[in-house]
Amino acid sequence: MNKPNIEDNPNIIKTDWGFISVLEEQGESRFNNILPTIKKSWYKSIMSDYEGGFNFDDVSINSSGYRCNNFKKVHDGKHILFSGCSNAFGLGLNDNERWSEKVYKYISNTEQTSGFFNIARLGSSIENNVIDMLNYFDNYGIPNIIFWGIPNATRKTMCLNDISYNNVIFNFNNYEQDEPSKIKKIKKECLLSAYNYYKMFELICKLYKIKLISFDSDSFYGEFDKDKLSYNLPIEIFNQFESFFNIDWAECIYYCHEDEVKNKNKFALIARDLVHPGISANEFISNQLIKIYKDQSDNPRN
Known about the structure:
Blueprint: E1 12-15, E2 18-22, E3 29-30, H1 40-47, E4 78-84, H2 86-89, H3 99-110, E5 113-118, H4 126-140, E6 145-150, E7 155-159, E8 164-170, H5 172-175, H6 180-207, E9 211-216, H7 219-224, H8 235-238, E10 244-245, H9 249-263, H10 279-298
Parallel strand pairs: 4-5, 4-6, 6-9, 9-10
Antiparallel strand pairs: 1-2, 2-8, 3-8, 7-8
């Protein structure tokens, strides 16, 4: 396959950071807004070419454009927030198949909760997640607990004009051989920024007594597709954070294959978009997070 001509692709631009892909489907985020709006019609359009079993009636998009309940300022019961990228958004999955909704359902069955609030965003970065969560705090109050599926650490949030910021995904796969020194520098700078944003956010959560449970969501891909190992977080760095927990991705892959054989679940490993974690993968993630939540309730780490 030939390398794409970047001059012919309006979604790929060249900056001092190198070649980058800009996700434009959701428009631009204003600094003072929580997030751009995702319309159900837009989501339906991107799923229209994918394989069957997707129930568009089971996709709940709130008034702000998120796959969750409408946001509110007054909370009665435990205030739970979910954040992340397309993995936490649940691209290619029905609402009740997502790990976020499964975790929320478990907690809401045993405790009074304020509602299901998920501000995950397609193509989001660690930086952008932090920005969005802080904007959420400012607009809708401080949550009691946050479940955060951390995006690829080599994503970046950049200002592309004077009043907006966009999520950026670097096209390392296409250009790594041509400009290895530049790509190496970009990765280091992205990682340093991601680390510092995470460290800052964990400290904020401690100050506001927010229970933070995070995990690396993109290492899922590197477990079965060795070409995507660059997606993996440097776990040895993030393991030093009290709020960071490891998911056994090798066990997750095994769990998915077992379910695929036993229940003939075509989308056990990979979702209907043929890219993101599938139904059984999300079930495995939710089981792991529920266990962490229960363990943390008995023996808190942060």
